[in-house]
Amino acid sequence: MAAQSICKGTGSEIDFSYFGGAESFTEGKRSLRRTTVVSPSEQDDGVSYPGPPQDPTDFLWIMTEEPHRSRRMAIMKAHPEVTKLMGYEPLTKYVVLAVVSLQLYLAIYLRHTHPLSFRFLFLAYAVGGTTNQNLFLAIHEITHNLAFKGINANKALAVFANLPIGVPYFAAFKKYHIEHHKHLGEDGIDTDLPTNFELLCLNNVLGKTFFATFQIFFYALRPGFVKMQTPNRWHLYNVIVQLLLDYILVHNFGIRPLLYLLFSSFFAGSLHPCAGHFIAEHYVWDGLGQETYSYYGPLNILAYNVGYHNEHHDFPSIPWTRLPALRALAPEFYDILPSHPSWPMVIVNFIRDKEVGIFARAKRLAKNSKQKHESPSSSSSSDRE
């Protein structure tokens, strides 16, 4: 006899036997739903769980294509005027100049302050962490050539934006990030995806706390283990300019200004409110098969509207200032998608919820993979799409 249960929030009966005994995970044990829907529908009321818990021993292997290309084509057909939103944003270079100036000023200002003092650490976390996160996302914006018309001008601005980060970052990030867009979720290509080693070692509360605290190092080191790049001249420019600034700071003001910049970069990718976007963007939540999530809250003001992440993946050629206009233009496409109400709570819920963790990422075989067989979990996972 099929196991029956009531899905709270809908009042409808669901035969959980289809899910291979998943009722043992759901009956009275599921946490509150974490994502919301602006425009609830029959398919998703924004309160109940659309699907069963994911298997925590493996990633969510799927066989479908990434969703952004098809949605982009549908939006362009329904709203051809969307092309008017595309193009570069002149404001970006002025914001970058202001933020870089602020960070370098604070670094020099703290040259006589002990690195472990409350003032030093507070400024490095509250101000430095926020501004360096802003610069990470400025580089993300510039990577899509959205600050100038010319490609080299964009790259030069990215090298400049990199200065307060303390270590050369831009050149390596650019290629990896473009591949993230072109090959979203493809195993062995998209280096935004956790590795099997991370899945094995970090799939518990302690491991997730470690990951969330030191995620900046995972994003920095993981690509080298997954897919190495061939350096080009912009890698060299990035390294030379960055090391030159670091030398000037240390030579003229001592080690503390450089420590402030490095502390700021660490906090920017650690347990910081703005760092919630790293986890919010592509981790799978609430039994959904959805690969990308947006966030429409106030922290977008500090983060180049990166919270509009479905919108960004659908139209990478639309700059940060016009992403809200894209959403307003096509609400029938975006308001029905589950989104996150809070970046800080994303971090908290990622750590404490059993239903989300390192495993909660959608993966697909690379298009050029010679593997003809399905992943052990691909059949059941793709059925939930």
Automatic annotation (TrEMBL):
Q: What parts of the sequence cross the membrane?
A: 94-112, 205-222, 234-253
Q: Name one GO cellular component term.
A: membrane
Top-level division of the source organism's lineage = Eukaryota
**UniProt keyword Lipid metabolism, yes or no:** yes
Which PANTHER family does its entry note?
A: SPHINGOLIPID DELTA 4 DESATURASE/C-4 HYDROXYLASE PROTEIN DES2, SPHINGOLIPID DELTA(4)-DESATURASE DES1
Q: Where is this region: Disordered?
A: 30-55, 365-385
Name of this protein: Sphingolipid delta(4)-desaturase
> What residues does the Sphingolipid delta4-desaturase N-terminal domain cover?
54-92
Report which residue ranges the record marks as coiled coil: none
Q: Give the membrane topology.
A: Multi-pass membrane protein
